[in-house]
Design a protein that fits this description.
The chain has 175 residues and is α+β, with helices and mostly antiparallel strands. Helices cover 39% and strands 27% of the residues. Helix 6 (134-145) packs across helix 7 (149-165).
Length: 175
């Protein structure tokens, strides 16, 4: 199993604030997925937030997985459908490049570095806003490097979680 195949669950959507105090059961947490806003309670929000840092399904109950998947707040990367996943999802950067640190690139906000990424993952992050989906990012980078796009995809998938865990980017569904 490749590392990309181990990434069975990835969070989808952008957190858009909170509607009240965290201890109030009426408080809702809006998450934008594609062209719709999904308002969730604290329990489902906590699961969605946890999905940003958990590399696989270990520790997830079936009910938790079902809740995330049924609401469209997470997606599985199936080993036999990695290219399909890449066609259906796009990467949305949320921060800026702050410069290079050796062979790594630092992303964040002025005065607030958030994550450092490899050169290839920086190229993915930089190309993503101009492309309609992750597969198009692979095609673009493959054309620039004379590498087969399918060979780039596992590395791209491996690099998503650190970006999302740091809040430097989010995954969205292609509309």
């Amino acid at each position: 199993m490749t590392t990309a195949q181990a990434l069975l669950l990835l969070p989808i959507g952008q957190f858009c604030g909170v509607s009240g105090p965290p201890d109030d059961p009426a408080t809702r947490y809006p998450i934008r997925v594609g062209d719709r806003m999904i308002e969730v309670d604290a329990g489902l929000f906590t699961l969605w937030a946890r999905a940003h840092g958990v590399p696989g399904e270990e520790g997830w109950t079936g009910a938790e997985l079902d809740a995330l998947l049924s609401e469209g707040l997470a997606a599985r990367v199936e080993p036999d459908d990695e290219i399909g996943f890449a066609h259906r999802h796009r990467l949305e950067p949320l921060v800026m490049a702050l410069g290079a640190d050796g062979d790594r690139f630092v992303l964040g906000l002025p005065g607030t570095p958030m994550v450092s990424v490899s050169g290839p993952m920086f190229a993915v992050w930089a190309a993503a806003p101009a492309e309609p989906d992750l597969w198009s990012v692979c095609l673009r980078l493959a054309a620039e490097t004379s590498v087969e796009p399918a060979t780039l995809l596992p590395g791209l998938l491996d690099g998503l979680r650190p970006l999302m865990a740091a809040g430097a980017a989010y995954l969205d569904r292609v509309i």
